[in-house]
Design brief:
heterodimer, A: mainly alpha, MetI-like fold, 0% strand, B: alpha/beta, six-stranded mixed β-sheet, 23% strand, globular
Chain lengths: 218, 253
């Protein structure tokens, strides 16, 4: 059979795998966004007792390869009485990784805003939450978005690693198809194109956002 | 004799081992323009920042219209909470050396923000009031420009409009022309002069001695965290009786 016919035949399986990959990526990105924003804000505005453990967590996670983290949660979890099953374990591991990244991006974006902005906002009588909502966050968001989209593409690419704990994501379904057809070339190529298409869309959206915010300077 | 609008008694503050304010006594009456001069490190900017609680003080008292700024009433010097501080800061307007306009908002939105979120005015009324004040500082035509599209002098005039639009009881000016190119100083001082003539109460920290002499009702010379001399501009600046003041005036020309 020709490569193109093989691909058409394998398409339903590959699409199911793609759906799993997107589901994992989406879950990880959403969970890590919420957790990362909270941790990152605490790193900037929280008391020392809160900052220290968060700093430790972020540094620890960022120093561990994503694959090691996945194996750790998947294999060590059950030994410690936390048997999650492969899908939740994979989502948890990737979320931990992504949360640390997002927290660091949020911290950077918030602390890059000049302290005078907070002072000027306070000087017109705004409360701390109002200062954050109307002055700090709108400015920080512009600096947060481009590196955050980078971390989203990291999460999408990282999701390919969950194939190693037996989840049939896009990567694993490609492996299965190759196992049946003995034709690695067209399918790895197809996989590369799909991952590239997702991430290129994200990073060009990021560039468009950057260009739109370029006129806002201090 | 009415009570002073702002009354500072024995205000003391240390940064670590350094005493920045060492028992400052100073009154500002309603409608009065008081200018603080002094060498850098004399505590004048810190004092100004204590008046609107951007800075805390360790001991002493600062009262605006009888209300203590930094501490709750009652015994024990309990610091005020965020919400109380916000309410007290509405009484004062602050203009900063480096403007600190909100860069993501246009000139008119900069002025509107406090009116909308703090004064709870509607969008239309807030915009109208903001435009009125931008017009007063000569920037009605620039209302929809972002700060990055304005010159330093224009930015500082927006900063003044943002502060006075909130109808503060007193305007605090912290070296508002120090960051400006020399040719832009005049336009900002002209706006301040106009406000002074209209009876706005002001506490001004400045290095512009000519300006201090011209607009002030009283000049205060600070050094070493204390008020060394206070009096009418002519007696303080023309015939300096204090050695440190004389040395300072010789340096600033």
């Amino acid at each position: 059979m020709k490569g193109i016919d093989l691909i058409v035949q394998a398409l339903p399986l590959l699409l199911r795998g793609l759906a799993i990959s997107l589901e994992i990526s989406g879950l990880v990105v959403a969970l890590a966004l919420v957790a990362g924003v909270l941790l990152g804000a605490a790193l900037v505005y929280g008391p020392l007792l809160l900052r220290l453990p968060i700093r430790g967590f972020v540094d620890l996670i960022r120093g561990i390869p994503m694959l090691v983290l996945i194996f750790f949660v998947y294999y060590v979890g059950p030994a410690a009485g936390l048997d999650l099953g492969s899908f939740p374990a994979a989502v948890l591991a990737l979320t931990l990784f992504s949360t640390a990244q997002v927290a660091e991006i949020v911290r950077g974006a918030l602390s890059s805003i000049h302290h005078g902005q907070m002072e000027a906002a306070r000087a017109i009588g705004m409360t701390f939450p109002q200062c954050l909502a109307w002055v700090i966050l709108p400015q920080a968001a512009r600096r947060f978005l481009p590196p955050w989209i980078n971390s989203v593409t990291d999460a999408v690419k990282g999701s390919a690693l969950v194939s190693l704990v037996g989840i049939v994501d896009l990567m694993q379904s490609i492996q299965q198809v190759i196992g049946r057809t003995y034709r690695p070339m067209p399918f790895y190529l197809l996989g590369a194109v799909i991952y590239f298409a997702i991430n290129y869309t994200l990073s060009s959206a990021s560039r468009r956002l950057e260009a739109r915010f370029a006129d806002v300077r201090e | 004799m009415t009570d002073p609008l702002v009354r500072m008694v024995g205000v003391t503050k240390s940064f670590g081992a350094t005493k920045v304010l060492d028992g400052v006594d100073l009154d500002v009456n309603c409608g009065e323009v008081v200018t603080i001069i002094g060498p850098s490190g004399s505590g004048k900017t810190t004092l100004l920042r204590c008046v609107n609680a951007l800075e805390t003080y360790d001991a002493g008292s600062i009262r605006i219209d009888g209300q203590e700024v930094g501490f709750r009433d009652g015994p024990g010097h309990r610091p005020r909470r965020d919400r109380e501080l916000a309410r007290i800061r509405v009484e004062t307007g602050m203009v900063f050396q480096l403007f600190y306009l909100f860069p993501h908002l246009t000139a008119v939105e900069n002025v509107m923000l406090g009116l909308r979120k703090v004064r709870r005015m509607g969008r239309v009324a807030a915009r109208e009031k903001a435009l009125h004040w931008l017009d007063r500082v000569g920037l009605a035509a620039r209302a929809d420009h972002l700060p990055s599209q304005l010159s330093g002098g224009q930015q500082q005039r927006v900063g003044i409009a943002r502060a006075v639009a909130m109808d503060p009881k007193i305007l605090l000016l912290d070296e508002v022309t120090s960051a400006l190119d020399p040719e832009l100083v005049g336009e900002v001082l002209a706006v301040v002069r106009k406000l002074a003539e209209e009876g706005m109460t002001m506490l001004v920290v400045t290095h512009e001695m000519g300006f201090a002499r011209e607009v002030s009702d009283r000049v205060v010379f600070m050094d070493g965290g204390r008020v060394q001399i206070a009096g009418a501009p002519n007696e303080v600046l023309r015939n300096p009786s204090n050695d440190r003041l004389r040395a300072f005036l010789a340096r600033v020309g």
